[in-house]
Amino acid sequence: MGLYCIIFPAVLYFLIWAYWPMYGVIIAFKDFLPGIGILDSPWVGFAHFERFFNSFYFERLLRNTVAISLYTIIIGIPLPIILALMFNEIRSKRLRTFTQTISYAPHFISVVVVVGMILFFLSSSNGLINNLIEMFGGEKKNFLADPASFWHIFVWSGVWQSIGWSSLIYTAAMAGISPEQYEAAYIDGAGKLQRIWHVTLPGIIPTIIILSILSVGGIMSVGHEKILLLQNGLNQETSEVISTYVYKSGILNAQYSFSAAIGLFNNVINFSILLVVNSIARKVSETSLW
To answer: Distance (Å, rounded) from C-alpha 106 to C-alpha 57?
Structure first.
């Protein structure tokens, strides 16, 4: 009975703030009118979903969302692992602490400040990068107005901000590897790279798989905050994603049911992908979320 009393506040919290609001998802199947409420609003079935699937922007939104997510996953998974391996090889505790602090400090910088830094470096008029290009005889380029540059700017700025923080998880996993394994590999004549390949990486494989599953499971979820701050009329062809479209439709245009339908579609796809990837990981490696 005592254990049930301990977990009751947590269960109550999730019931109130996570599960009870889920009834509001039915507005995706209704023409929601705030004046008469959710239950009394007229039922329209899948009309909002059909409108979204048949819209002119559907293919572009889907392409940009998936492409940015895949780009982020391909870059964002291996780089923190490499950084954590580099930290693990630093023998000086002070130097390791100092470098780790520098690497994860950008994680605590707000999105607005990060975008301000991007504008400072990439401004077409007096940006630092363009000033350097002009100094060496090149021509200035408006990076933020170039649709082909937007994905690179978004992804690599995100990697810079999160790589250090993400590496902490792998560093913690490496700390759990028995020193005896390294000693045995050293006695057997294994070099530094061989110890990394045959001892360190196998020791953190379960962590890599779990984090990869979570990353792939959120492939349709690209945050809208930084995109909205970087977006303009010239780069909208590659910068408009599902989350920004939902924000504009639901908040700016007050199309609550339509935006709810898009959000529900997004979450269903994410959950389906998560189930598939988790099942594949369980069969291949015996490591999975459940």
So the answer is: 34
